[in-house]
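> Could you send the Peptidase A1 domain-containing protein prediction when you get a chance?

Sure thing. Input:
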Amino acid sequence: GTITLPIIHRHRSFLDKRAVEVQVENRSDVSYYAQLNIGTPPQTVYAQIDTGSFELWVNPDCSNVQTGDQRFCRAIGVYDPKSSSTSFVTGSAAQLRYGIGSANVSYVQDSISLPGSATMKQVQFGVALSSVDEFSGILGIGAGDGFNTLYPNFIDELASQGVTKTKAFSLALGSKAEEEGVIIFGGVDTGKFTGKLANLPIVPADDSPDGVARYWVGMNSISLSPPNGKSTTFAQTKMTVFLDSGSTLTLLPQSLVNEIADGLGSTGTDDSGFAIVDCDLANQPGTIDFAFDGVTIKVPYSEMIRSVNSLPPHCYLGMMGSTQFALLGDTFLRSAYGKS
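Output:
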């Protein structure tokens, strides 16, 4: 049968055999995490789900993160290869860089399982020797062996060791109010979306903006649909974007972010460059609409507007300008259901 961990109180339809559904927990509207059980006996750690990278690593250096993140960092668990009878230190190492932060890792092979799933053997992953600005390890679920890595990554191993039938996975982050979601390796949960899934071809690495095999897709347009009034489609919004659960924000060309912010009545930017908006917008039924071939994702204002705990309340648009590429992060993905 199916291995599931139900987290949302709604009817769950049947999942394909050998699909593994894993609880994904949201940390303060910032990132999403899954539990991993590594080694013999199992050592439990949590890693950030990241569709924008390709490798698994654990054990961040909690002394090299902001003070406010240190407590969380220390609570996610630590893996010790010496405490596992099935660990093998390969002797190879690498530096992994991200949009924010980096990690120097030593590669280890050991047994890994997800909650309720069969145990995979001799899975290769990184154990951090040092890290900067990373308050958790990362579970990169992008394309691995033959694309971005020289060894089978976590997704590759799930399929090759028979835990799932396929390398495909689906991701439902859940809304900010739900504060959790699910990732299903090897299956789809039809209870997590309405309507039909649209098939969007992945743009090959050679044709992508950065030349890397990621979940690049073609977007046709972005429009603003206010609660009262006519929708406005912004010019020059047909572009290639990639879907990145490891990014809290959505990154778009600065001129487009400015137009969207203006459409929401932004009063300017804060010291960090975020567009300031009225917090009351999060209570209004407007949407920012992202159109693709065969489907339009309507992101509610409440998901795209982020708040800061302050007096008086301070809210800003969950988008930032980028000169490198367009990226749809968690502020978009919480309103979408994605299957690789």
